[in-house]
Amino acid sequence: MSSTSLKIIFLILVSLQVSATNELENLQGDLTVITVGADSTCDFNSIETALDSIPAGNTQTYSIRITNQQLWPGGLFIGNKNNLTLQGGYGNCVDAAAGLANGPNAVIDGQGESFPGITVHSQSSAIHLFKLTIQNFTTLGGVVFSDDSSGIISQTTISNNRRTLFDSVGGGLSVLSNSFVRVSNSLIDGNESFNGGGVACAHSTVEVINTTISNNKTVETGNDFANRGKGGGIYATDFCVLKIDNYITVSNQGTGFGKKIIHNTATIQGGGLFANGGSTVEINKAITSTTQDGQQVVFEDNQILHDVQFAVNGAGMAISGSGTTVDAYQLALYGNDIDASMLFGSGGGLFAGNGATFSMRINKSLNHCIQENIPSNACNQIQGNTVLNGVAAGFVTNSNAVVDIYQTDISGNVAQDAHLGSVFGAEVNMQGNVIHNNGLLFNPNTTQLIAASTGSVVNIDFSTIADNHLFSGPVISGFAADRIALTRSIIDENSNTPVFADNQQNPSNLTLFRCLLTHENSSFFGTTIVLGSADYVPGSTYRLEQGSLGLTMCNHNSADLFPENDIDGEFRTGCTGQICPPASFDAGADATFWFDVIFKDRFE
Fold first, then answer.
1. Residue 96 DSSP SS3
2. Are 198 and 173 contacting, i.e. CB atoms less than 8 angstroms apart?
3. Which of the chain's termini has less CB crowding within 10 Å, N or C?
4. Positive or negative: CA dihedral 283, 288, 290, 295
5. How many other C-beta atoms are found inside a 10 Å radius of the C-beta of residue 272?
6. Cβ distance 512 to 485 under 8 Å?
7. Pairing mode, if any, of strands 280-283 and 187-189?
8. How far apart are alpha carbons 281 and 64 in whole angstroms?
C-alpha cells in the first residue's frame, strides 16, 4: 500500500475516535457489566467465554467490555441473544468496570481463523458492536448478521477481511435473511469478496450513517462474469433496503463526519455501489427539519478494473432490474473511472438499466449550489468521471430505465464518445442543471454531449449548457429517439457546435425545442428561439447578469413537464407548491444572486 493511502487511512482512523453515541449509552433495563481482559481483575480472559456466560433468550441487558491489552481471536457466534453490547476502548478491566473507555479500539484479529470475525444469527436482537476493530479474517469475512437478527455497529473499523468461500458476499459486512443493521461513524476499508467487497445486503435493511467505505474490491476465481465482480464498495440485492446518510443531528452535533464511498474497485459493475433484485437505495433522504444541513454522500474515485478486456459499466454506481430504485439527495458522483484497458466501458458515474429508476435532487436551498471556487455541500454533482475506451462518462441508461437528474453541477466528464450521457431505449429527465466543461479540451474527433438512440426519451428543462468541448459534434443526437425535448434553457457553445443532430429525420412532433437562448438555430426548429449571448455575472458560474437576454424570456405552458425550480431548489415567482400559473421566467439553470426578481422570495 502506498504511503499516501496509509496517510489517508490514518487520518480517517483518528477522526473516528470520538465519544460514545446516544444509541449505545441509553440502554434500557438492568445492566450487567462483564469485563474481558488479560489480567486477574477481569471477569473473563476471552470474549468467547464471556459470551457463553449469557443465557440464550436473555431479557436482561449485558455489556461485555473488552480491553485493548492484546489481540483477541474471532470466530465469535452470537445466537439467540438480545440487548448485548460488545464494547472496546478500555486500557484495563478496572477502567472497563468503571466505564472509562478512553483508549484505542479493542482489536479482534483473524489470526488464521476460518470463521467470520463475528456472526450474529438466530433472531438475536439489539446487538451493539462499539469501538472495535475487526480485521484480517481471510475466508468468511469480518461481520455477518443473518436469520432475523438486528444490531448497531458504531465507531468501529472493519478492515482487510476476505469472504470468498463458495459464493459468499460482503467481505467486510454481510447482512442477510431479514436482518437489520445500522452502521454509524465507522470505517469499512480494504475488504474483498466476489460481490460486495465492503458491504453486502440481501433480503434485509442496512443503514449507513456518517461512515466511510473505502478501498474495498471484488475478486474472481475463473471467469464467472455473470455472477461475480459487482459492487466493490456495496452490493445490494434481493429486495435490500439500503439507506446512506451524512448528517449532523441537532441533539448530538459531535457525530457528523461527512464520509464517502471512495477508492473501491469492481471488476464488472458498480465500483462504488451495485444494486439489483428490486432493492431500494435512499441517499440522504432522512435529512429533515429535525437535523442540521446535511453533507453530500460522495461516490469518489471508484473504478472498474479487470485484467482482461470485457464490457463493463457503472464505475461510481450501477443499478439494474425492474423495481430497483435509487432516490438520492445531495449526491456527488465524482472522479469515478472505467479503466482504459477495457474493450468497452460505459457509465463512468452511473449505469441504470433494465427497468431500474434513479433520481437525484436537493432537499432544500441550503446555500447557493454553484459558486466559483467555493465548495458546497448543498449541490448535486456529476463531475470528473472518465470512460476513455467507451461512452458516457456521466451516465448511461438502457432498457426502460428512468433517470431523473435535478439541480446538479455537471462538469469535467470525459469519454471516448458521448462525453456526458448515452440513452438506449430509456428515459432521462433533466432540470435545473448547469452542464459545462465536459469533453476533452483538445480532441480532433467529432463527438457529442448526449446520445439518444431508438426508443429513448430525453427531456431537458431550465438548464444551462455551456463551454463543453464538443468541436463539431452536437449537443444532443437523437437517432430514432422517441422524443427529444429541450425547453427554457441556455445553450452557449462554440459557434461550430450544432445543438441537435438526427440522421433518421424524425418527424417534427417527436422533438420539442421551445424558449431557448442559443448560439445557433440552424440544426433544429422550435418556438421562442433567441439567438445571442447569455451575459453571465462576472466571476460567477453561469448566473445571468442584469439585462441578459435570458431574463424573463419564457412563459409557462401546460406541456412543460417540470416544476419551476432553479438549481438551488427554489420555486420561481408565482408558484404555489409545485404548480405554477402562467408567468415569465428566466431561461437556464439560475439567475443573478443580487438582483434576482424571479423567485418567490424576490431574492436568493
1. helix
2. yes
3. N
4. positive
5. 33
6. yes
7. unpaired
8. 34
DSSP code of residue 509? G
Measure the CA–CA gap between 180 and 524, rounded to whole angstroms: 53
User: Does the CA dihedral 388-496-420-468 come out positive or negative?
Assistant: positive
pLDDT band at 88 (very low <50, low <70, confident <90, very high): very high
Which residues are within 8 A (CB) of 28 and not within 5 positions of it... i.e. 6 or more apart?
61, 83
Q: How many Å apart are CA 408 and CA 89, to the nearest integer?
A: 42
Q: Which amino acid is at 26?
A: N
Rg over alpha carbons for the chain, rounded to the nearest Å, is: 26
Distance from chain centroid for Cα 94 = 43
**Rounded-to-integer distance, Cα 427 and Cα 431, Å:** 13
Residues contacting residue 373 through CB under 8 Å, at least 6 positions apart: none
Q: Which three cell numbers stand for residue 228?
A: 461475480
Q: Exposed, middle or buried by CB within 10 Å (0-12, 13-18, 19+), for 45?
A: middle
Residue at 368: amino acid letter: H
Would you give the distance in Å from CA 90 to the centre of its chain? 35
Choose among 309, 329, 231, 216: nearest CA to 271: 231
Cα 112 to chain center, whole Å?
34
What is the rounded CA–CA span in Å between residue 544 and residue 587? 9
Nearest to 340 by CA among 359, 319, 315, 317: 315
3-state SS string for 462-492: CCEEECCCCCCCCCEEECCCCEEEEEEEEEE
Q: What is the distance between the terminal CA atoms of the chain, rounded to a whole angstrom?
A: 47
pLDDT in tens, 547-592: 888 888 887 664 455 566 777 766 655 444 445 555 677 888 876 5
List Cα–Cα distances, 228 to 84, 219, 232, 260, 299, in angstroms. 35, 8, 11, 24, 21
**Residue 143 in contact with residue 183, Cβ under 8 Å?**
no
Three-class secondary structure of residue 7 per DSSP:
helix
Determine the Cα–Cα distance for residues 108 and 136; give it in Å rounded to an integer: 9
CA triple 66-68-69, angle to 5 deg: 110
CB 546 within 8 A of CB 474: no
| Percent of the residues in the chain that have a pLDDT greater than 70, as a whole number | 78
For residue 510, the 8-state DSSP code is G
- Beta-sheet pairing, 584-585 with 554-555: antiparallel
Separation between Cα atoms, residue 361 and residue 226, nearest integer Å? 32
The three grid cell numbers given for residue 600, joined into one nine-digit string? 418567490
- Cβ–Cβ under 8 Å, residues 255 and 295: no
Q: Which three cell numbers stand for residue 232?
A: 466493490
In this prediction, residues 333-349 reach a mean pLDDT of 83
pTM over 0.85: yes
As a whole number, mean pLDDT of residues 338-345 equals 71
